[in-house]
User: Fold this.
Amino acid sequence: MNPAIALRCAGRPVARYLTRPELARDHSPRPYLHPVTTLAGVRVTELLPEDHPHHLGVGVAVPDVAGHNFWGGRTFVRDQGPTDLDNHGEQRHDGFKLRDPDGFVEELSWTAADRVLLREHRTVAVAALTDAAWALDFTFSLTNVSGEDLSIGSPATNGRPGAAYGGFFWRAPKERTAPAVFSADADGEEGVHGGRADWVALAGEGWTLVFAGATDPTRRDPWFVRAAEYPGVGSSLAHDRRLPVEAGGTVVRRVVTVVADGRPDRAEAAALVRKAVAS
Assistant:
């Protein structure tokens, strides 16, 4: 059984959320949003793509929590490279505290090696912005319940430069040409990847996604951006150093994503972000 819920915006279905997906253990099973669409019905997420079969639409994925892989696929090991390890964790859906057509509040357990390492409180909400754009507001709060201090890492902190993925992540569909990437003051994947910016945009064939950190801690996280190899955007919890989470401590991040038909220009993207974050 794969319980799923539908999210609606302005009376239209825009996303499906799967709470207990049936996935191979090396995919690090976890809830995800897919498909997500624009108001006109254009799909803007990808699931189990051939290039990275552990990419699952929109969600939270972290490749290294105290040595456990909650991202899926191989683990990057210092001085060794990507390695198949039996270290995959699972994000287990514990239940909804609130569930409405335009959002939900969920409780999850991050479990590995028969231990619960983190408890997550996740809030997801949708809001209409214009006739051609809506916003997905995604907040996650991770509390260390392991009973000991732990830390969050990434391939970058484990020795692979430029690969600081881990946190909120959105896998977009691969099309005939790579999507355009831009922020308020930079263009292209190389200009935006690894930098801190109030927002970054990924624009494909008839659709645009604009990602914005909606809290100060989230805005301090650099952006992880891929366009040429595959289209995906996330925020980096562990960019150049591991993120410590003391026993009983909590990490909170909030990312608001504008989902638009067409291709807004810089000024239009910025205006949509301001409206989305304020809504």
Remarks:
- The chain is about 10% helix and 45% strand.
- The longest strand covers residues 115-130.
- The chain has a mean pLDDT of 97.
